[in-house]
Write a structure and sequence with these properties.
By secondary structure, the protein is an alpha+beta fold. The chain is about 30% helix and about 25% strand. The strands form six sheets. Strands 6-7-13-11-12 form a five-stranded antiparallel β-sheet. A four-stranded mixed β-sheet has the order 1-2-5-3, with helices on one face.
Length: about 290
């Protein structure tokens, strides 16, 4: 297990923002992970489980506790029989999509451009271009806050729009089993190329961000509301509403967490004032008490 002290979280998030974590551990086995959690309990430290850092904003003060990165050490992908696949939580969804394409297994193309780990993807029921994790997952093995390992079937995961039992009960995903259909590798890769081309064309991938900043309000599109409120290019410090896609807040260089949070609050206020719609951030703010209105 890799152990780091005072590790800058800006180095581990797609926003490239965040102060230092007191402790930063990278377990290489499930036993390492359990040991890290035992350490947190013994020292009475707050802890946060991090994947690829693609949907999170850490405060400028960092994290007074333990951040545990579930990544390369827990990223095995096992191709089983009859289209079943078992994948550890630290595998990236892009790597998983590519491995499935190699084996001519179809049904995960939608996730090939999502910049996150599988564990995080399951926790938020990640989706894109008409596909969602819930469409292909059979079960997930999780670690409870009490240290128990449980196997949850699809219906027990309670997967909804950007939500799951994982989030509600603070479970930690260890691995999951999926079902895919046999397909044609050429067709699978062509679809992945098309979807990723559309993502590159429409999203500001050239700048650091946490992905889509707001959840989709029922009956609306967040990006359209923000654009119609005249906020395209709206800037606070180094943070900006992307001119390419208003649903994204980007780090144009040197943005602080406070810049991003103040911008998010301004956008929420102005959209509510213009349309009476309450936008809810999709990005997780860690720790929440580290963010206050300006």
């Amino acid at each position: 297990m890799i152990e780091l002290r005072n590790e800058p979280l800006s180095a581990h998030t797609s926003f490239r923002i965040g102060g230092p974590a007191d402790y930063y551990l990278i377990p290489e086995t499930v036993e390492d992970l359990v040991e890290a959690l035992d350490m947190a309990r013994e020292k009475e430290l707050p802890f946060y489980i991090l994947g690829k850092g693609s949907n999170v904003l850490f405060s400028d003060q960092g994290f007074r506790g333990l951040v545990i990165e579930i990544g390369k050490g827990l990223s095995r992908i096992d191709i089983l029989e009859d289209g079943k696949v078992r994948v550890q939580a630290g595998a990236s969804m892009a790597a998983m999509a590519n491995r499935l394409a190699e084996k001519s297994l179809a049904g995960f193309e939608f996730a090939s451009g999502i910049p996150g780990s599988l564990g995080g993807g399951i926790a938020m029921n990640a989706g894109a271009y008409g596909g969602e994790i819930k469409d292909c997952i059979l079960s997930a093995r999780v670690l409870t806050p009490e240290g128990q390992i449980k196997e949850l079937a699809l219906e027990e995961l309670e997967l909804g729009y950007r939500t799951s039992i994982i989030q509600k009960k603070d479970y930690i995903v260890l691995e999951a089993c999926f079902q895919f259909q046999k397909g044609d590798e050429t067709a699978i890769r062509a679809l992945m190329k098309d979807l990723n081309g559309r993502r590159k064309e429409k999203q500001p991938l050239e700048f650091p961000s946490a992905g889509s900043t707001f959840k989709r309000p029922e009956g609306y599109f967040a990006g359209k509301l923000i654009q119609d409120a005249g906020l395209s290019g709206y800037t606070v410090g180094g943070a900006q509403v992307s001119e390419k896609h208003c649903g994204f807040v980007i780090n144009r260089g040197g943005a602080s967490a406070k810049d991003v949070m103040d911008l998010i609050q301004d956008v929420k206020d102005k959209v509510y004032e213009a349309f009476g719609v309450e936008l809810e951030p999709e990005v997780r703010l860690i720790p929440e008490e580290g963010f206050s209105r300006k």
